[in-house]
């Protein structure tokens, strides 16, 4: 099955991390691999844009040179020179996106080089998605020519996450955390059924574990629940991450070893899946959110209700009892 695999930035912090990712990628048949920036680099690029401090440029340079050197990969020097030149550019939302584009361009270049080095056929696609010119939160446009080009590639297709391009060729970004969205958007455009969002968490949790230590990994979620949870701010998902997931597609949120959370067009238990901090109180996301509204909760949407209590209480009340009743095979 043709698969889109997205590798998160938290899994791209060192040469060893890139090797782990490459090993995982090598077990798939001609996958599309969407790559995030190395952890922390997008923030550094924003700082660099604001301050133009050469010390930040040097730190970004060092991170990537070190990883590339250890992996024996070349190809990032032209990008680093281009970034250095950008230090003289004026301010503007388009220039900020241009600065941010280097994070994904650098990491994808390294990933592509590494895959080739270990003997895989790989082709690099830099910002292949055409977007509108709403810099900072650009909207991807459905351009089929791209799908054809990637679809015809006879090897791994490495694609930069998060960034796109306007029709006249300027870099855009789709909003922070947007690589997941790039991955689901591409899968839909290409007609691929499976998307794997590889992250450092084992799956989607029922609550923020810092607030609710007994939060559990959800085995399954419907697309509607995932759309709602992302929209309300779950796990730093880009709010539109699950919007492209249509019938017949499914998304796995997982690490390399876990089974993770499978998100698709199915309606599995438990009835209440995720609790989030929400204004003064909590939002409970789940298929049966309307039942909570009947009990006095406030309507947020078809799949979410607001309750005036901290997440820990809401989790104890709505998620825990049903989760404990689920029967697990093995
Ligand atoms: N690198 C981007 C960010 O930090 C996109 C992503 O990682 O998904 O927001
Ligand atoms: Mg992310």
TrEMBL record:
InterPro entries: AceGlu_kinase-like_sf, Asp/Glu/Uridylate_kinase. Keywords: Kinase, Transferase. It holds the Pfam family AA_kinase. GO terms for cellular component: cytosol. Its EC number is 2.7.2.4. Residues 1-255 form the Aspartate/glutamate/uridylate kinase domain. One of its GO terms (biological process) is lysine biosynthetic process via diaminopimelate. It is an enzyme of class 2 (transferase). GO terms for molecular function: aspartate kinase activity. The keyword Transferase applies. Belongs to the aspartokinase family. This is Aspartate kinase. It comes from Thermoproteus tenax (strain ATCC 35583 / DSM 2078 / JCM 9277 / NBRC 100435 / Kra 1). The lineage of its organism: Archaea, Thermoproteota, Thermoprotei, Thermoproteales, Thermoproteaceae. The gene is lysC.
């Amino acid at each position: 099955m043709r698969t889109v695999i997205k590798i998160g930035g938290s899994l791209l912090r060192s040469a060893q991390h890139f090797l782990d990712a490459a090993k995982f990628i090598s077990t798939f048949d001609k996958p599309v691999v969407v790559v995030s920036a190395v952890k922390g680099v997008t923030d550094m690029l924003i700082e660099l844009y604001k301050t133009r401090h050469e010390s930040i440029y040097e730190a970004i340079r060092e991170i990537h040179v070190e990883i590339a050197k250890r992996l024996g990969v070349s190809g990032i020097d032209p990008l680093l020179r281009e970034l250095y030149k950008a230090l003289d550019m004026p301010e503007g939302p388009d220039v900020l996106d241009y600065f941010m584009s280097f994070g994904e361009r650098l990491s994808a270049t390294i990933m592509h080089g590494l895959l080739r080095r270990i003997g895989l056929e790989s082709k690099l696609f830099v910002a292949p998605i055409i977007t509108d010119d709403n810099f900072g939160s650009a909207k991807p446009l459905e351009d089929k020519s791209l799908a054809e080009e990637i679809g015809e590639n006879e090897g791994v297709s490495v694609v930069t996450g998060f960034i796109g391009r306007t029709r006249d060729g300027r870099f855009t970004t789709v909003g922070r955390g947007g690589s997941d969205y790039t991955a689901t958007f591409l899968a839909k455009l290409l007609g691929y059924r499976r998307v794997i969002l590889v992250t450092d968490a084992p799956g989607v949790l029922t609550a923020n574990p810092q607030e609710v230590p007994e939060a559990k990994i959800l085995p399954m979620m419907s697309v509607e629940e995932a759309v709602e949870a992302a929209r309300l701010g779950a796990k730093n998902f880009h709010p539109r991450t699950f919007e492209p997931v249509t019938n017949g597609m499914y998304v796995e949120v997982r690490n390399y070893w876990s089974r993770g959370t499978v998100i698709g067009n199915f309606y599995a238990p438990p009835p209440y899946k995720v609790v989030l901090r929400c204004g003064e109180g909590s939002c409970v996301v789940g298929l049966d959110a309307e039942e909570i509204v009947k009990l006095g909760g406030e309507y947020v949407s078809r799949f979410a209700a607001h309750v005036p209590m901290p997440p820990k209480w809401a989790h104890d009340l709505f998620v825990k009892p049903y989760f404990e009743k689920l029967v697990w095979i093995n």
